[in-house]
Amino acid sequence: LEDLLRMRSGLEFAERYADPASDVVQSLFALPDAAGYAADKPLAQPPGVEWRYASGTSNLVSRVLRRALERRGLDYHRFPREALFGPLGMGTAVFETDAAGTFVGSSFVYAAPRDWARLGQLMLQDGVWEGRRLLPEGWVRFLTSPTPQSPDGCYGAHWWLKVAREMGGDSEAARRLPPDAYHALGHEAQCLTVVPSRGLVVVRMGLSVRVDAWNHAEFLDELLRTV
To answer: How far is Cα 150 from Cα 185, in angstroms, rounded to an integer?
Structure first.
């Protein structure tokens, strides 16, 4: 499970959005069971050896969560609302399932900017919200600890620890960012950034069809100098 969370599953999975026949496009838009599709893929190499971003692993994690909750007699489809969205007051949040009824963990989570900021604030507060611990103690530290196999420690456990190269990650601005910053980098440059040393949560919503049209590193650098 940790290998899945750290994107070192070894899964043979093509993450090419411009190719309609690629694994990610087929699993998200053409097939009824995203996790089942990923589970049927062969291993390209043993788990734990190489970091390779593959959204199929996120959907496997979602299926694992579904099985664990259902074995305990809990309602999987109510779980996100009861455990996270409700306590945080994320009233606009929508988490879509595939046709098999499994939440698409890699994609298809929608919320207004203020609600994404609530999620970032929860991370900033080490998983505690209004005096109530929503995330296990140490979980934020785990999520934001570098995966050794990722290039330059750019990835934690489903959180990016550095801005992606396509969004200015190789720039001087990126090198000036506080080293404790971490990011949720979504489709078409939707970004949620947490900077613990500055007590800052940043949400960027937009529609950059070409992901390199948005330089997130420069935006953060300018914002940090402003505030």
So the answer is: 16
